[in-house]
Every structure is written in structure tokens, then in C-alpha cells.
Amino acid sequence: MNCVRQILHSPFHPHPTLPPRRLCRNPFMVRQAHHERIMSALKFSYLAVRPEPVEGRTGDYGTVSRVGGRGWGGLIGRPSKGSTPLHDNLSHALLSIVVVMLATAIIVAPSHASSAPLLIFAGAASKPPTEEVARAFGQRAGIQVRVTFGGSGFVLSQMKLARMGDVYFPGSSDFMEKAKREKLVFPETEKIIAYLIPAINVQRGNPRNIRSLRDLAQPNLRLAIADPEGVCVGTYAVEVVEKSLRPEERERFRKNLATTVESCEKTANIISLKMVDAVIGWRVFQHWDPERIETILLKPEEVPRIGYIPAAVSTFTRERLLADEFIRCLTQTEAREIFRKHGYLMSVEEARAYTLPGTPVGGEYVLPGSWKRRGK
Questions:
Q1: pTM score, two decimals?
Q2: 135 CB-side CA count, 13 A
Q3: What integer pLDDT is reported at residue 116 of this predicted model?
Q4: Residue 90 C-alpha from the chain's centroid
Q5: Domain 118-195+309-354, what fold?
Q6: Where, residue-wise, is CATH 3.40.190.10 in the chain?
Q7: Would you identify the CATH topology of the domain 196-306?
Q8: Rounded to whole angstroms, what are the CA distances from 190 to 122, 230, 304, 323?
Q9: Model confidence pLDDT, tens digit, residues 199-238
Q10: Segment 324-344, tens digit of pLDDT
Q11: Coil, strand or helix: which one is 40?
């Protein structure tokens, strides 16, 4: 995954044929470039301080070599006829100190091969492929990538309270819209990575014979959804119920609701562990655990929106270039194939196979007060 771009802050650019102030994306070349910068500085300093014999003055020093116009010669100049060896030694001692400081500055110049980790706050809706992409990006960039997974709303609150984080990567547009409204991300950096479709997830083999959304209103079922206030798939579950079930069916559905959970991952796990009979989750959950999860698709008219997984740079970032680079990597072919391998839909056209032609994409759903904790 050629995803690493090195930005140089030194006037000694080791690869003048490359675009200005940009270096090869290969981590090995990053190290080589630093080495070449140091060697350029040392060569430069040698030209500046090498002694040159002056005719008629044995043991004295001549004019300091000029590099690029006035250069160092303009700073130090030619010793006057009345100069002494002590004067010359002091001049060159001072110059040596400057050269050492220059070389030191180049060695410690900031680069993308930083020890600071890249911090990503991510909704758990993308956990399997995101872990794989982040691991590959970190290895090839030579950095540590730390990903905090959870409900999209919950990790947004964590990022906001901590005032730190480089990338916000929620599971749906709902929480990205909130992040943009609260100026927690740079809107111009937002990219759509993959698409999601809500669905019913049951235990493999479907022992309770659940075939439709209305079957979830049957008596004596144990159901679960994610917390609709903090988890993207929970928000979609409420929207599905509110828009597709009649009032009496909604009431019976809520009576069957045994619990709510704190993330997409936990929504999938609770059905994998056979703790409930069904959940309203994502179609992709079956691909997370195909041996224990089976997906029952909603009717096209019951899918209220096509969901998508966006990513944007956080306004708290301290690694802006790396954050931009990580998001760019998410949109490249290799990362897209990783998402596809895990069962994600990679285009609107693929997602429309499960919806009506006019079903909206993304957007933000306003949660009814009756589904909020203070309204229960």
C-alpha cells in the first residue's frame, strides 16, 4: 500500500527530481533521504571551512569558500592582513559550532517517521476491515496506529472530551453530520469509504423462523438493538421500526426488546452468543461471523436510507499530513478490496440492489423523543 508521503523541511532536498518538498513514499527511502540530507550538510560545511593556503603566508588561511552567492564567505570573509592565528582559530571555531548546529537540526528535523501514534476514533461498524487496513498502514509508514472502536456517538464524545484524535471514522453519516455541525472535523476532508444496508440478523439456522420485519412483533421473542442515541445501527433500527411498523406493531416490538447494547460489534456479538433471538443490525454482520449469524433482508421499501461509512480529519489532529494520508489510503484499491473481502458494499449501485430506486443515501435521522433515555 503506497500510502506514505514524506514532507521535508530542509533546504537540502535529497531528490530534486521529485515534486517540490515531497519525498518517495517508501519508508526505506525516507531513512535514506535523512542520511543524504546529513551528508549534504556535512559536504556543505566542508566546503565552507576547508583551509586554503594563501600565497606568501605560510600556515595562514585564505578566503572561506562561497556556496550559492554570498554563502558563508559573505559571513566570515577573508582575514585581513593584520589577522593573527588566534583570530583565525576563533573564526573557524565559531563556524564549526554553526555547522554542528546545522547538522543537528537536520537530524532531528520533524518528519512523518514520527514516534507519535496516529489516533483514530472509529465506529465499530467497520472494525474487521479497519483493523486490517490500519495495521498495514502502520507497518508501511513505520508508525503506530491506535484505533478506538465503539458506538459512533460514544467515540465522538470521547474525542471531543479528550480534545485529541487525528481521524474520525463513524459508522454512518448521522454522527458525521453532528461532528461537522460541532466543528469537530474538517468538512472538506470527508470521504465515503463503504456502504451499509440495515437488515435483521438471527442465529444461524433461524430457529425462531423469523422471515420478515413484522415477525419481530410476535410474542415471546427476545430482541436487541444498539443504543439509538450513541450507535449508528441503533439509529437505523429505530428508523426502520418507526417508518415500517404500525403503532400496535411498534408497541409489541418494544415489549420484545430485551436490551440495548453499546456498539455495532456488541450488536453482532449478542446474536453470535445466542443471547437473543434476533437483532436489527447491518447486512454485513453475517460476513463477520458466517457460522453463527444469518441475515434476513428487509423488503426494499422497508430500507429507509442507504447508510455509508465516512472518514474525516479531526480538528484536534496533531498529525494532519498523516491523517490526510490515512484517509487517502482508505479510498485506494487495496483498502477497498479489504472492505469488499469482509462483505461491505463499495458503491451506491451495489447498495441499490437492496432498496427502491429512490431510496436516499446518507443524511441524518432525528431520533423520536420516546426512544431517548430521558423519554423512556
A1: 0.72
A2: 7
A3: 85
A4: 53
A5: D-Maltodextrin-Binding Protein; domain 2 (3.40.190)
A6: 118-195+309-354, 196-306
A7: D-Maltodextrin-Binding Protein; domain 2 (3.40.190)
A8: 14, 20, 23, 11
A9: 999 999 999 999 999 999 999 999 999 999 999 999 999 9
A10: 999 999 999 999 999 999 999
A11: helix
